[in-house]
Amino acid sequence: MTDPLARFPRFTLAHLPTPLTEMTRLRAALAARMDRTPPRLFIKRDDCTGLAGGGNKTRKLEFLIGDALAKGCDTVVTTGALQSNHARQTAAAAAAAGLRCVLVLFDSVPYAGHAYRGSGNLLLDRILGADIRVEPADADAGAVFTRIMDEIEAGGGKPYLVPVGGSNAVGSLGYAAAYLEIADGLDARGIGAARIVHASSSGGTQAGLVAGRMLRGAGPSIAGVNVYRADNDAMAAGILALAAKTTALLGIAAPGPDAVVLDGAHLGARYGMPTADMKAAVECLAREEGVLLDPVYTGKGMAGFMAQVQAGAHNDVEALVFLHTGGMPGLFAYEGEF
Ligand SMILES: Cc1ncc(COP(=O)(O)O)c(C=O)c1O
Questions:
Q1: Is there a catalytic annotation at residue 172?
Q2: How far is 203 from 166, CA to CA, in rounded Å?
Q3: CA-to-CA distance for 90 and 88, rounded, in angstroms?
Q4: Which of 49, 51, 56 best tests ligand 1's pocket when mutated (most atoms within 8 Å of CB)?
């Protein structure tokens, strides 16, 4: 089969394919808490995409930076919270492509830990040479972006705006491609019915996976764990709309309304604020499998994954894949939690 993504501009950044490995010790640990053996458990190591600490944004940025270069842009502008993994990965991708990078970081997470405002991803953003603009949580985002885009153009530059999380149809192509890679990895192991579980936030990862499933026509189902919005239904609707934009870009049929499954039980008080089950999940995976998660996304995602497994929610499949979307530098910003 010819590569359905080959016609899109792409700038190579990621080490692919990322490993797909079995978590036998986690499975045994969960089985000991249950009255039956759970499905086989795998982890897809997208924390190992290889770009300045790795993570899911690398796959999206291959297409976004490819698009920026194709359009002749010289400055990438993006946004997120102070500890945004997306911002760190964008700074690294821009550096690798020889582009300037402006990060507009909103001070929107009321986390008081002393390292939050200087260490973790922020430290790496500085080392990567990004032009960092910190804005208060209540700043008018539209006005801020207009000002920065005008400023770049006034200086003779050509800006390329990457939305929060790299989550538009172009960025989501990275996860349509990732879906094909995961499905091929399961096929190569002779695994039939399977499901992918992952942390979902700005939605491009899940939308891309859903689009990838439409592209392939069959394969593992997808279940997101909401780590971002209190309104779970609105977030699921947004992901479905983005998946439809992604399939439109691919020129294939849109997914049906049931394609987006989103667990809203593990967000806690709000985005970026630690929960007890996140901390337990981070420590459990570290101690059972030697794999480090992060406090904002994958820790809550894994908390959902483990709770779902223990509740028997995935007894209908042979294997579950936890998609590790990265974020490990965030642990240093939350050092007081562990
Ligand atoms: C480590 C990590 N995992 C998961 C996500 C969620 O991905 P998405 O924003 O595509 O939903 C993010 C997004 O910032 C992330 O940094």
A1: no
A2: 9
A3: 5
A4: 56
Q: Give dist(CA 303, CA 294) in Å, integer.
A: 11
Is any atom of ligand 1 closer than 6 Å to the C-beta of 78? Answer: no
**The two domains 20-55+168-337 and 57-166 share their CATH topology (first three levels equal):** yes
Q: Which residue has the higher pLDDT, 2 or 301?
A: 301
Ligand 1 atom with the smallest distance to the CA of 239 is 11
322 falls in which pLDDT band (50, 70, 90)? very high
CB atoms within 10 A of CB 201: 27
Task: For ligand 1, say whether the CB of 202 is within 6 Å of any of its atoms.
Answer: yes
Fold category of 57-166 in CATH: Rossmann fold (3.40.50)
| Per-residue exposure over 124-148, b if at least 16 CB sit within 10 Å of its own CB, e if not | bbeebebebbebeeeeeeeeebeeb
Q: Is 204 in the pocket of ligand 1 (CB under 6 A)?
A: yes
Q: What is the pLDDT of residue 2?
A: 79
Is the CB–ligand 1 distance for residue 59 below 6 Å?
no
Å from CA of 297 to ligand 1 middle: 6
CATH architecture, domain defined by 20-55+168-337: 3-Layer(aba) Sandwich (3.40)
**CA gap 212, 206 in Å, rounded:** 10
CA of 22 to the centre of ligand 1 (A): 22
Over the stretch 80-112, which tens digit does the pLDDT of each residue have?
A: 999 999 999 999 999 999 999 999 999 999 999
CA of 201 to the centre of ligand 1 (A): 5
Q: What are phi and psi of 106, to 5 degrees?
A: -90, 130
Q: What is the SS3 assignment for 16?
A: coil
pLDDT band at 36 (very low <50, low <70, confident <90, very high): confident
For residues 57 and 86, give the distance between their C-alpha atoms in angstroms, rounded to a whole number: 6
What pLDDT score does 1 carry?
61
List the chain domain ranges: 20-55+168-337, 57-166
Residue 301: half-sphere exposure toward Cβ, Cα within 13 Å: 25
Distance of alpha carbon 141 from its chain centroid, rounded?
22
Can you tell me whether residue 96 is helix, strand or coil? helix
56 neighbors 88 (Cβ within 8 angstroms): no
DSSP letter at 165 equals: G
